[in-house]
Amino acid sequence: MELYSLTVHQLRKMLSKGAVSAVEITESVLARIDRVEGRIGAYITLDRDGALAQAAAADREIARSAGGPLAGIPLALKDVACTEGLRTTAGSKILESFIPPYDATMVAKLKDAGAVILGKLSMDEFAMGSANENCAFGTPHNPWALDYVCGGSSGGSAAAVAADECLASIGSDTGGSIRQPASYCGVVGLKPTYGRVSRYGLIAYASSLDQFGPLTKDVRDCAMILQEISGYDQRDSTSVNIGVPDYSAALGKGVKGLKVGIPREYFEEGVAPEVAAAVRNGIDLLKEAGAELVDLSLPHTDYGVAAYYIIAPAEASSNLARYDGVRYGHRTAAPDSLLEMYNQSRSEGFGTEVKRRIMIGTYALSSGYYDAYYKKALQVRTLIINDFKEAFARCDVMVSPVTPGPAWRIGEKNSDPLSVYLTDILTIPANMAGVPGLSLPCGFTGAGLPIGFQIQAPHFGEERLLQTAYALERELGIAGRKPAAL
Amino acid sequence: MEFETVIGLEVHAQLSTDTKIFCGCSTEFGKPANTNTCPLCLGLPGVLPVLNRKAVDYAVKMALATNCRINRTNIFARKNYFYPDLPKGYQISQFDLPIAEHGWVEIEVEGEVKRIGLTRIHLEEDAGKLIHDEREPLSYVDLNRTGTPLIEIVSEPDLRSGEEAAAYLKKLHAIVRYLDICDGNMQEGSFRCDANISLRPKGREEFGTRTELKNMNSFRNVQRAIEYEVRRQRDLLLDGGKVIQQTLLWDPDAGRTSPMRSKEEAHDYRYFPDPDLIPVEISEEWIEKAEKEQPELPDQRKKRFMEELELPAYDAVILTGDRELADYFEAGLGHYRDAKKLSNWIMTELIRELRDREMEITSCPVTPVNLARLLGLIEAGTISGKIAKTVFQEMLASGKDPDIVVKEKNLVQISDEGEILKLVREIVAANPEQVKQFKEGKSKVMGFFVGQLMKETKGKANPKMANQLFIEELNK
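^ inputs. structure came back:
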């Protein structure tokens, strides 16, 4: 068994026994990257020397019985997380040469836990996309079927884990950007409760929706990573000051007596039969394991996408105003005036989808349109929040597909952004409501593409998510399956 | 046609917190460019604002001092526009729910008390500064000022003249100084104002087209600029012209205004609640605490000076218009009981000298205790009022105690009757012509005799005693 193919918890056990060194693990993963990265394209920036130095430092810590819970574990980060001294592009040409002078709080926490940072992973530009086809530095390939998309916007984060190019990764989820690619690439992905993980250092797309979260090979790893990145941060006013429970301790609790809600709107038209069947199978397994099934309705699910595509672009139009060519990032050559500097720098630096969303958002916030669009979207958001409140009064977790269908061929939907937007219909509501959601691999299509199983829980219900996912993962018995394409 | 002037002021006051409103950087003025900055000030990707609650506290104090209604839930909003001194491409400000609304202050112009409405007070962050290279088409950005907390105080269009506007601005200035929430420095721009001015035919309800006036960095310039602009608009309207809505810059040297932008752009700031900041809840306890900490305000102090110290309104208004001046006065009062005499000295000698020297009261070399002692020396007859002015000059120059100045310069008043009488007799004997005139009834020559005596004594003779002795001697 190659070291790179193991899980975080397996390697941590080996490391603490002295059976393997952090440098050996990192070297193994780097060798794996050398072998498959040409076919996957998950990384934007690989920090080979930095990773080896961190691994060596971790070994020294482990040798004196110190080192954190992730000591010596090579991880990789979506390129939306600021890393001190390491280029951070957000997948955009406008930040092609941007090197942050500071670490995101989440990154600092991982470093404190002893993790080795391998590098920065591909993503849709400024996290805007659902297929990772909007990255200025290329589109990564789905490890299960190389001419298929790996999902987005955390496509690189999902592909790298699925291809064993890192032990686990961090993504960010604004409307499904962790769960959807996790589902397409057959890995576990968790979007925590809004406020659970500090957003300080997360290059903002839509501030009221963005959240960092782990993508891992199994549920236990997911709990371990979540443990380290969670917690209140004074630097993020929207982070919530409540204690972080022991997530790993929740894993063995089982689902006996757990009330599992099934929102009927999540199974309606548009869900591919293969996807529906795989998810139904998962639900049956939960029932067999003792869960109590509850039929539910989230009546405003349909409006989620529409409201999301007002709120997120509105916030983005403002969040992305700072990329003006004045202080850092791309600046056009020899502009004749201030206005030309702004216009040209931004025209050259941003890609099509980013421009589209800036336009939508600017329009939605404009005087005369604000009430009809932005304000209305906020009202819809309140209705969605109420849907969730009522649903969670009747159940402990809710289960559903992650996306209506599996991954599609690269380029297949390029001319139809709307059909891509609609693939987020089942993931957006969790962001709108701020509740946590998890994607667990639950099967494959006939063509061999992974299918995801979504579990959602009330605010700060991550333990229940993990407990349910862990139970189902054991019942399904497909964890550890590797893509044949590699 | 008779016109009515309608003026509203927007006043920006930088709050004197040690650190900025959304990060921990220092607000100190005058540091090398871009040294008081951090990733947040620079608008780097990924940074988040964290509210400095002290700034909110200062704004609450201002709201209470100006009779505003405080909104219990405060929302910060983004004001979106592009400018190189605005690193994030938006300013964090307040829009829908500002910290305070519906307040008022009282001003006094020509003996009339008038209440001026405050529409709102809101909190926001200041922008940076652009430094333009004079020789090359180059501009530099200094972000030290970025994020300095500001309150913007918006008045109702209740002001009717430049004088009223200046009085209103002075009142707000006095209040922020009394509350000690702003250093009030108009030259450095920590207290600044824009004016909206329009004219309408007397009796008409509807407002005329307004212009916005900027760059008035003193009370005097606010009044001058407004008066100029009112004249300009009136002349224009009387000529059958139309006022164009535009932003004008006041040029204090030329004494006129000129358009800042030729074409007024219709700004759409696309305000929306800042998702990075949670609403600020201002609790009952918070307000109660601020109320308790509220110092005596200018109006209250004025009232006290008039009622307890029996100062005339004129004195009370001037003394209390400046917190430091009033503090100075009261510090002196602890050592000299006659409030009116002390007030006279401060309002004439002291204020004039400070103005001539372009000096602040706080850096005045004459301490209030020393001024009080000086007046004490006059009262005790140690020096005359005239000599006191000489002593005062020396105190201003050297900062010395009046007693020491008097001793060193040998200025003690001669009150020895024998000594003065000796000199009086000598002078009378030496000037028979003037004695003759006096005896003929020309009492004016008394001035000549006293003058001679003062010349002999270098002004130190007790003038009262001198007068008395001359009368006695000449009537012999």
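The interface with chain A takes residues 39, 42-51, 78, 80, 82, 84, 87-90, 141, 268, 270-272, 275-278 of chain B (CB under 8 Å). Chain B has a mean pLDDT of 91.
thumbs up if we can close this ticket
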